[in-house]
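Suppose a colleague, Dr. K., hands you the sequence of a protein chain of 323 amino acids and asks what its three-dimensional shape might be. Before reaching for any lab equipment, you can write down a predicted structure in token form. Begin with the sequence itself:
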Amino acid sequence: MKASASAPANPKKETFNQRFGMPPPRKDNIATPEDVERAENPADLIDDPLERDPSLGGKKADPLMERIRVRCYRRDNETKKIYRCASGCGTTYANVNGDRWLAHAASMCNMVPVELRMMAEAEMVKKCPSRRATETANAANDAITNTDNAAQESKKPKLTVPSSEEAFPETSTLARIARANGKAARHAKLNLAIMKLFCVGGLPLFLSSRPEWLEVFSIMDSSYRPQDRETLLHGIQSEYANINTIQDKFLQAQRNLTYSCDGGTNRGGRALWTSHTSTPEGKVYMMRTREATEESHTAEWIRDNVALPVRSLLFLLKSRSIS
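The predicted structure, expressed as tokens, is then:
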């Protein structure tokens, strides 16, 4: 007796990502820090600095980035060029993304000199969402003012009255510039508001890449392109640098400051160390938070990691006294 026809194959089991509406891993065309960052043994890396020929032209090298990262390759793979932290911490990235390296130097690496850390933080502040929103709003207001002034000039009596486009092309040009600046200012405000929503609401960044999220903005404003996960992350990091800069300027003008640090664990069992500065009035300012679950909390580790904000603040105070 012949065996009956084979039974239909069992349907594929739903994955965790599909069940909870998360994007499939490593298939969403958006690089994440986990995809591109690795901790290497510095002894396994061989430097291969890029030699530039000035006669060929092209984009000039950024002096700050040249001090932060170095092109290199692994001993077991000489053909693939990567970039390592110039301070020797062993962190490598697969590409030369400047935003990642600035964030690494400003707040992630404990081996970066304080002066270089301050320079990286200042560069990040230039790109923070709140500053961008202010700059675009000012540009929009200036463009509106220029347009109004040109419109007042155009109302003066003329010998002939052709169409406004032909008679006063500068007025129509200013109007287009005003509309473009107004749109840029609105988009910058949207970027800032979205960043606040993700931070205050504790929303996972992968939501910014969901089709449903993108659909909302395509309906609201088809000219607005929402930030992807990586851009949103860089915006949060640059805003963090901006807040630190404002806070440091305030603390530089204070006296009799008290520095403290503390460690603990959250509900997920992750070890967190925080450092704070207190004023005589009793106001406490958060200086830094560090995740240290896999670290051994020795005296040397506390000195090199938790006490880092004190060294940064002392450097700023010394710079102020010299100037």
